[in-house]
Amino acid sequence: MNFLELYKNPHLIGAHRGASCLAPENTMDALQKSLGHCDFIEIDVQLTRDAEAVVFHDDTLERTTDIAKHPEFGSRKPFRVSDFTLEELAALDYGSWFEPNPHTEPVLTLYATLNFIKKHHLYLNIEIKNMHGVFEDTQAVAKVLEMIEQTKTSHLILLSSFYHPYLKIAKKLAPHIPTAALTEDKHPCETMEELLEYLRYLQVCAYHFDLSLADRYVVKELKEAGFHVGVYTVNSPKKANELFFMGVDAIFSDDA
Ligand code: G3P
Ligand code: CA
Asked: What tens digit of pLDDT does each residue of 165-214 get?
């Protein structure tokens, strides 16, 4: 089964940044704690200064690392991930900020994540963060694809991004890997007809949006046009049931 086939099942639960209610987001601990509680894991991926792929959500390191406790990096504000090498990132801790259970967690690479999901035969949604202007678009996508190729995990992967040009590049370089367009607060088109046309142009199999955009009409039109629908971030079981009843295929939850 690949991710496309997984998406034929109803009521899918994606562990958002891993089990991010139970463990520090986007860490190995969060991946491990989601085992048995989700249908797939969602992670965020971006490149380091030396173009290694790491699993990390924010553009900067302040919120989810202990960089403030590293005087050697004091002059490197605003602590952008893309300004640090993987070796430098490996000196930081990714779990001591986490409440109510602060503990040490190492940096998580995409490579380690792919090996983990392969070992557990778990599906993975890789969100490629928008690195436009920092790395060449093709370089950013190609690095993610290189890791997937190296670990032979393409059958377990769904690629997504808010930066839709990445999705076109991914389709060109790896047409066998399914993709999903992400949006927040606003659809990228004025009318439903234009939106469906746009999603067809992107060659995505799915459209993922935030809770504020979830309504019965949009979900029905997308489903009738053959797109899978995912909604983030949904931490209430009652809300999840409402969305599934509406026809939503997958929800992304911190509480998976
Ligand atoms: O992929 C769904 C969701 O993760 C997108 O929003 O900000 O949590 O990456 P964000
Ligand atoms: Ca994400």
From this structure: 999 999 999 999 999 999 999 999 999 999 999 999 999 999 999 999 99
The two most distant CA atoms of the chain are separated, in Å, by 56
Bridge partners of residue 132, in order along the sequence: 135
For residue 220, give both structure tokens.
């029905």
CATH class of 3-58+111-253: alpha beta
Query: What is the chain's mean pLDDT, rounded?
Result: 98
Query: What are the extents of the domains in the chain?
Result: 3-58+111-253
Contact residues for 10 (Cβ-Cβ < 8 A; gap 6+): 244, 249
Is the beta carbon of 42 within 6 A of some atom in ligand 1?
yes
Amino acid identity, position 131:
M
> Ligand 1, closest atom to CA 127?
1
Ligand at minimal distance from the CA of 184 is 1
pLDDT of residue 256: 81
Ligand 1 in contact with 127 (CB < 6 A)?
yes
